[in-house]
Amino acid sequence: VVKVTAIEAIPFEIPFRRPFAFASGTVTVADHVLVRVRTDEGIVGHAEAPPRPYTYGESQTSIVAAVYDWFSPAVTGADPFGRERISARLARIVGNPTAKAAVDIALWDVIGQAVGQPVHSLLGGFAESVRVTHMLGLGSPSEMVDEASRIRDTYGISSFKVKVGRTPFAVDVEAVRALRSALGDDVELYLDANRGWRGDDALRALAALADAGIAMLEEPGRADDILTRRRTVERSLVPIVGDESCTRAAEVARLLLDRSCDMISIKTSRTGFTDSAKIVGLCEGLGVGVVLGNQIDGAVATLAGVTFAAAHRATTERPAELSAFVDIADHLLIEPPEIVDGRMAPPQQPGLGIAIDDDKVDHYRVDR
Ligand SMILES: [Mg+2]
To answer: How far, in Å, is the centroid of ligand 1 from the Cα of 362?
Structure first.
């Protein structure tokens, strides 16, 4: 039986090619944490935790501390196959979702290597590849059009999640109209306001974009404005997606039963594989669609995302958000994930196929 001997948390910093802006924040550097599970058999599992303080209250420092102070001691000595037992141990500490998710994913990487199978197969092995959708950060209409055109021409991507949520919302309406007219009708566009709009701005913006073929709208405004949120869902012809307002299975259930969203964004960087699979099951049972979302993941976290997305039927029904790593100037892998003709395939090596370039870790780590 494989046993966990230690979990390490290595903070690193890689700059973005250019700042990525959205309604709740801007990122200029990927100040993420590489989580590494060591075992007595020499198998090493990896995952990446991206701190998003404006959403979860975690920082790079807090993730490192959570791993060393709580999660490494809680999991050391454990059999990595005991996923429910480990989950329960991690759950004794509240919060810290991306730190917990990275521990879970790194343990799955160990499990896959221990049995000599790709985690994609262990989780469900549904598809050989998935369509990729790209997130477009806030900018002027011409900047957003240029970026979308470049991404489409470089990677063959034909689905975009467009960041909105600015005040006045007319700025966003103008940008989305510019994208639709530049990219044509064959490209899919959906919107993410990151809780930025207020009152009925979302309904007004959607009305102004009624002929722009918007597929979905994520997090229109404050989730705590319960009546506004319900009214938006009730009156919108465009499905409303819950993301940062429902980051755990119980919150997903609450928002769906409350008619406060129509679809759910699942992010492996915040619910790992174990809890993400539970949310997929919950949504399938309720007949609710899901989107494989992205926590502005680096390349390591992207391998986890594509593994999960391709493993389940529900997450392949829509393009998955897997291309944020291309906005980051470098990565910690020997080979970065590949997007070909707008699609990405899950790694076929045992585990998650995370082949770390140790020289790059030495170069980008900020703890020594
Ligand atoms: Mg979102």
So the answer is: 32
